[in-house]
Design brief:
Layout (H helix, E strand, L loop, with lengths): L2 H22 L5 H14 L2 H5 L19 H4 L7 E5 L5 H25 L21 H17 L5 E4 L4 H7 L4 H8 L1 E6 L22 E6 L2 E5 L3 H4 L1 E5 L13 E5 L3 H10 L14 H11 L15
Parallel strand pairs: 1-2, 1-5
Antiparallel strand pairs: 3-4, 5-6, 6-7
Helix pairs in contact: 1-2
Length: 311
């Protein structure tokens, strides 16, 4: 079976079984229902999967089904990345990170604007309106305080932010793995695993996020950047990969990037100008991979809450 056919087999299975999943769980969103079908798919034997018909039918019909997280992860949301807060123990550190990211966005946008050609017919300085006198010291302090408040509330342009205020929702997000974040905010699918390099053997035992009978669980959607406990001290986040880059790497692999750098990274990733692959070297965060592999080796324990994937 070809790599294309492998992907088409899951697409066919998804389109066939999604309606039944929706009927059985009418209050659940699109992403969670896809995962339910995915669990059914992985529960088949390799022989049963190999016998499935391939289909190149379009999955667009599934997009009409809403999802609780479409407000930040849906296709109509312009921001290409999602910042997921998974540690709520240090508000000052989070605030510092957010402000750094906000300033980095402004600097990036400003640099982009300065790179654009300047219109030769711009309004002369004497037509730009009356000058404004400098504020008194007290007014300046008040203005600075107001600016600080505005910065805290000002939304990011290149990132949606998942930072709930409800303690119950915070508890669900606290310390989640890369794989859990993908399952919550991205669309699950299956593709052929990357080819095994000549002279190497297949991974044993198989794992669905690396290679399970020649297949790999993958995700599509917006780039996820995870703020965790370590972020409080190093002001960096985990950038989560949606699929393995080369054989032996895994869906959900991550590496850390600082707040001052991730705007440019996100823009370049979204535009296709950059792909994080370390030049073919496996330099992903190994402990995070091990955590994902352990999670992927177990069936998903679906939550009774329609908004959340697992308990």
């Amino acid at each position: 079976m070809t790599a294309l056919a492998n992907a088409d087999v899951f697409r066919s299975f998804l389109l066939e079984h999604f309606p039944a999943a929706k009927q059985a769980h009418p209050t659940e969103g699109r992403r969670k229902l896809r995962l339910r079908v995915l669990e059914q798919f992985w529960s088949l034997t390799p022989e049963q999967r190999a016998a499935l018909p391939a289909s190149q039918a379009n999955e667009a019909e599934l997009s009409v089904h809403g999802d609780p997280h479409d407000d930040i992860a849906g296709p109509d949301v312009p921001a290409p990345g999602i910042l997921v807060r998974t540690d709520f123990s240090d508000e000052a550190a989070w605030s510092t990170f957010y402000k750094t990211l906000l300033e980095a966005e402004k600097d990036f946008t400003s640099a982009e604007n300065e790179a654009e050609p300047v219109d030769a017919e711009m309004t002369p300085a004497d037509e730009a309106g009356p000058s404004v006198p400098a504020p008194a010291s007290g007014d300046a302090e008040m203005a600075e305080a107001e600016d600080d408040e505005e910065d805290e509330d000002e939304p990011l342009g290149f990132f949606s932010v998942l930072d709930p205020e409800d303690p119950t929702e915070q508890a669900r997000l606290t310390g989640i793995s890369n794989l859990t974040a993908l399952r919550l905010l991205s669309d699950a699918s299956v593709r052929a695993a990357p080819p095994v390099p000549q002279g190497e053997k297949r991974v044993r035992p198989g794992n669905r996020i690396v290679d399970l009978s020649g297949l790999q669980e993958v995700y599509s959607g917006k780039t996820l950047w995870i703020y965790d406990t370590k972020s409080n001290s190093d002001q960096s986040v985990r950038m989560v990969n949606q699929q393995g880059d080369m054989y032996g790497t895994a869906t959900g692999d991550s590496w850390r990037a600082r707040a001052s750098h991730i705007t440019e990274l996100q823009v370049n990733i979204a535009s296709g100008a950059m792909k994080i692959d370390f030049g073919g070297m496996d330099r992903w965060d190994y402990p995070q991979r091990q955590r994902n592999l352990a999670e992927a080796s177990q069936p998903i324990n679906f939550s009774s809450d329609p908004k959340w994937i697992a308990d």
